[in-house]
Design goal:
- The chain is mainly alpha-helical and 684 residues long.
- The chain is built from 31 helices and five strands.
- Helices cover 67% and strands 3% of the residues.
- A hairpin with an 8-residue loop joins β4 and β5.
- The protein is globular.
Amino acid sequence: MRRAGTVLLWPLWFAVVAVPWSETRFGLFANLAAAAHALVAAAWHWGLAMALGERVRRIRRSSLNALGSPPCGREAVADGERGDDPSQDAVQWLFAAGIGLGLMAVLNLLWGTFVGVSRAKFLVFDALLAALSGGSWLRVGRAALSAACGVRDAAHRRPFAAAGMAVLLFGTLPFALTPTLFPDTIRYHFGLVRLYETAGRIVVLSDFAESGLSLNWQMLYLGQIEVAGELAAQAFNWMTLPLLAAALALAAPRTGRLFAVVVALSTPFLLGVSATANNDLGVAFFIALMWLALRAGTGRRRWGLAGLFGGLAVGTKYPAAFAVAAVLVAAVGEEAWRARSERKGGFPLSAGRFWNLILFLSGGFLGVFPWLFRGAWFTGDPLYPSLSRWLPWGAENGRWVAEHYAREMTRYGGGMEGFARWLLAPWRATLAPDPWFESDLGLTVWLALPLTALALRGGGRARFVVLAAWFHGAAWAAGPQVTRFLAAAMPAFTLAAAEGWTALRDAAVRRTVRTLMLAAVVANLWLCWMALAETTDPLAWFLRHSPRDAYLGARSPLYRAARELERRTGGRGAVLLFGVEGQSFFANPVRASGPFDPKWIVHESAAAKSPEELADRLRAAEIRFLCLDPHRIDYLDRQFGYASWPDAAARWRFMEMVRKHSRPVSPELGEGLREIEPPLKPGR
């Protein structure tokens, strides 16, 4: 089996890394070839993750057998063992995918930190991982074929439902296979990869806060971008969408599976981030696996597995901690509900449930530990940067970031406190004007909300997920109202809505809800496509057959400036970005000041005694070029304290240095891209 898997493996590896279709120019078919290569590379990495997860599962089972305690019964399903039910096989492979993704993220982090970041190094790394997975590749292939046959059979039985699912899934695929200009993606989801390439390894940059966050999804992108390019990372992220739908379907009650999938897949911001390579979809996938582990069996070890997936979600994005907290709150609340209904007193948590939660927290700590260790390794602060103020020994610039991040986040609550913020939460989540998927919750969620209340009439299983969904929604409404932060809450909400749909017995009411949901799905798709069109144009990419440089250059002045600078300098000479976000565009070394960072240039402006000395400080730091937008700096400073000039003199010194000691690189590129002039020689 191992030899056959390896024989299958190497041709696939060759197709991904040794035949770079995305770098060829076939005229009419160039961009289609790039898209095909991206899909093959993304599928390769998903297969690699599943194969690694399968290998871990088998090692674990062998260890349990050696100890004389193999899993059995329904608990085996939760632990990833094979059962007779085809849905149990699907659960097994979803768990393998989640475990494999977490393992790949950690291994990418270690490899990039201690070995380095380059295409050649990650080609070797991928080959080593593939060899490690060995014969698991054949099992992955068989599982994929079985899933495809299952989808085909389901499509024959319910053709209209299958057509609708295809529209929801594949409606965003063209956007995912087109280069994106989504701000977060070009700043740090892909921009960090560029900064790591410049540094030669994974580092924590003191003046770029996102480099210190938990970055499981970015670690997965790192290997994919190095091996096959950015489109492969976008395709990989999009492929998370059907797996998220599968996890939700298997965790939902049988009669509510389709309803749960429709609610999740028609939510505009989830569809949007699937096409823009944001990390929110990864958060939703890990949290969906957490709920699948909790609801797939009855054994105690499932709590540890669920905690592991919750920890991996927190290791992808810190706001996922609310989803983990929601499980703890729901467990206590459901026990208290049951004790009250049975007229029992005492502590509202049984001993068995208490130890379940201990296992859950232990698994969660294991999932997030690599990022705590990484923060401590680089900065001495395991909570760096956004939670540094909670530690007496927290890093100084981490405290700065935490304070400014908290202040910036108040924008999403309008600076209001108390009940008013709760009242405005629906408007901010659905109708607040923002094109970057900050307010695209859509209509299906609000239509499904009453069903979650109906689900409370069900058993403890239904009450548990409803309480978790409600707690998470309340925590979001009281905190930073960024709609994308609800990605971690969507699995619990969709499962609660599915429980409510199952409890809905009246046929006339069901028909009414189904009709309203269909109309809401159409409206949601329209909202999503309009928002995606702000940054991506698949028609121009595929039908006009423009090269990548021409496509992005026509849409982004910053991209044109970065390419012109690379052409003139050969990639030599560092660039300081200030009030500009686009790190992934530059081949030259970049020093960036993002929204939440300690502003190095502000500190230098305050420390310098004159504009001339400030220019000398920039030259001493090997910064040769400036890329700035003074109007955006002023706007961000008014809104969020972006630059936080200590006094007017510091700002004046910076602006005078720009005016007197720098010049535009090229008139056609505007005033924003400037070269710092060399100092005058003595006597001139």
